[in-house]
Description:
By secondary structure, this protein is of the alpha/beta class. The chain has 20 helices and 23 strands. The strands form five sheets. A seven-stranded mixed sheet has the order 11-10-12-13-15-14-20, sandwiched between helices. Strand 22, helix 20 and strand 23 form a beta-alpha-beta unit.
Amino acid sequence: xxxxxxxxxxxxxxxxxxxxxxxxxxxxxxxxxxxxxxxxxxxxxxxxxxxxxxxxxxxxxxxxxxxxxxxxxxxxxxxxxxxxxxxxxxxxxxxxxxxxxxxxxxxxxxxxxxxxxxxxxxxxxxxxxxxxxxxxxxxxxxxxxxxxxxxxxxxxxxxxxxxxxxxxxxxxxxxxxxxxxxxxxxxxxxxxxxxxxxxxxxxxxxxxxxxxxxxxxxxxxxxxxxxxxxxxxxxxxxxxxxxxxxxxxxxxxxxxxxxxxxxxxxxxxxxxxxxxxxxxxxxxxxxxxxxxxxxxxxxxxxxxxxxxxxxxxxxxxxxxxxxxxxxxxxxxxxxxxxxxxxxxxxxxxxxxxxxxxxxxxxxxxxxxxxxxxxxxxxxxxxxxxxxxxxxxxxxxxxxxxxxxxxxxxxxxxxxxxxxxxxxxxxxxxxxxxxxxxxxxxxxxxxxxxxxxxxxxxxxxxxxxxxxxxxxxxxxxxxxxxxxxxxxxxxxxxxxxxxxxxxxxxxxxxxxxxxxxxxxxxxxxxxxxxxxxxxxxxxxxxxxxxxxxxxxxxxxxxxxxxxxxxxxxxxxxxxxxxxxxxxxxxxxxxxxxxxxxxxxxxxxxxxxxxxxxxxxxxxxxxxxx
Length: 624
């Protein structure tokens, strides 16, 4: 038998120096094989050991049978952005993808595979190590049911890794107990499968790998959470009672998360009746129409969608902007245009969201970067929408929405009260000295007062129009009336930043000439890249945009730095375009670092882009 097919490690490749809590493990599986839950157990067990971990599920858009990957970055320093290559340990149990999987292993790294069957010699590299364990044989010898064989094969290789890289077995046991809390009969069989994998690996390999895990305390006060689930929970805490949606990857679990949490917190304890409604509409147009209608009627309502849904919602977003009806929309961005790559991530809905609908429209945007911010900004979005009487669009993305990320524990101030903005009650209307006008600006901030339908049959009623009207909601086609209304909306737009979160600025040195602007999930990789640039002699300050319209700090930051780089995950430099348009910044003063292949941006990509521009001093360059 060839040594490649042996269960013994091949020692002809360079040996990695011992590494503790700083490497990448990547799993290569078949979609629909049940591997995701086993791989998730792997990541969660490491998290419970107190070690920062960043898991990413890389899955195809078909339902079953195609290759899928699950990448886990382990970093005691907290560098959890996509590393973009350099996989130290590849666990490849899918023959379809083995050629690609072998290529991704870094020199000196390890390729763990099922050696029940011979390995193709075309897959052999002289600079990596091969670790074979007969997973299929072990599984078949211990389980008779074909479906159980597939499921427990995944659990067995996780048990093997526990021995090879030092996962505490008690941490894995705890995850199994929690996972099957509602199905306790499944706990022991899964623990037995883990133990089986551990014992077989220990029998086959005299020594564990130099890639080792050591208990840490870096996760104290932290949780692992998906962004979509955090958005759903944030909507519940914001007082949302209506969710109208149409299923679309990768936003579906926002609505599912809202329903899950609403069933815990929005059920009348006396009657058992739901105090919420989740409506699956026939399409995205209907969904946003229901949301606008529910908000106009006084409920807090929202929808969740992705790029194609945003395209369909344009006209009704314009109606909500012009009629000044609050609404919240969570856009979990994916790779476009058209169907694009629906299970890959991107930041490419910036412009379609900022100027959603025809005519002169501008929409409020929020950009969370962590699950904690998904929770907090979703809750804030409803208050902002009510204060400004306009749609608020929160832009997350697939990487944030559908992957678990480490974040601080969620906190809620129980003394917080919902801010409904400028509401006229029946008493207010009766006591008003002057006639109330639905679109009348009496405070000079561009925001009129509104009533909830039914507030006052005589003084509070008005027609909510998508057509031109005067200050008293009376239909008109007079150009002067229309122009006054549009100019008032501009005043409201200028007022909006007062109600929005400010950008987050990290100033490392006031003498720095390099400034980096980023937003959303570029956060982790940008901060890692800044540390790497510092090692090369470049120091940089950074500004993270959290909301649009922009605060004055964005323009000031640009003016303070000689070199300003904008990091974004799209082809057309959409944030740069927005900054140039809105702040009237000279385009050549901004340099773009762009990434748009569907994977999350890596620090390596950012460093390469910025270094190339600085070294060439090409102030007009865009680096993709």
